[in-house]
Amino acid sequence: MTFLLDILATIDHSREKRNHFANLILAHPEMLPELLNICSKVDDEISCRASWGLEFLCKKNLNVVLPYIDQIITIASRTYKHPGVRPIAKVFEQLIIAYYQKKSITARMFLTRVHREKITEICFDWLITDQKVAPKAYSITTLYLLGTEFDWVHSELKIILENNYSTSSAAYKARSRIVLKKIG
């Protein structure tokens, strides 16, 4: 664990370092449980750096994290610091895109209905609580796709987007317009 903590201490927002970290985990998948353990220490600043690495790992190979979906959902439900929420929200978006748009066989094997329901709940929480725009935007996309399966999601999402539209940022408004147009 000390090795992984030392590596995480060097990670910053640069794509290069996060990419390098993701490649390290892909080369040593036995380190993934340790990475998730660090992500779960939500009160510690290092958990945010670990989440950045997790996000890039998912971008490179989503399948490697699918056996750990229960743990990721548990981490997401406890994560509250923005630098940690943003990458976890992005991981959810990637998972749901793989499931609904890409129709990934592996994602469909691992992502159960209970998982999808929990992701729905967490994304709605992020959408209605005081979060920055990025996790809200990722949650909007995630919820839109989940709403193609769960009928009630689109109607709730539409109400929230319309209610928050006038007081939101340009990025939030842009994502809202796209999704509201799709919902109809």
Task: Describe the protein's architecture and organization.
This protein has eleven helices and no strands. It is mainly α and about 180 residues long.
Itemize the secondary structure elements and their pairings.
Elements: H1 2-9, H2 15-27, H3 32-39, H4 46-60, H5 69-78, H6 82-100, H7 105-110, H8 113-128, H9 133-146, H10 151-164, H11 170-183
Helix pairs in contact: 2-4, 3-4, 4-6, 5-8, 6-9, 8-9, 9-11, 10-11
Radius of gyration: 16 Å
Question: Strand fraction band?
Answer: under 5%
What kind of oligomer do you see?
single chain
Task: Estimate the helix proportion, in percent.
Answer: over 70%
Largest sheet: none
Which descriptor suits the 3D outline?
A: globular
The assigned structural class equals mainly alpha
- Overall mean pLDDT score? 95
Sequence stretches where pLDDT stays below 50 over 5 or more residues: none
Question: Total number of helical segments?
Answer: 11
Helix-strand topology string: HHHHHHHHHHH
Task: State the separation between the terminal residues, measured CA to CA.
Answer: 49 Å
How many strands? 0
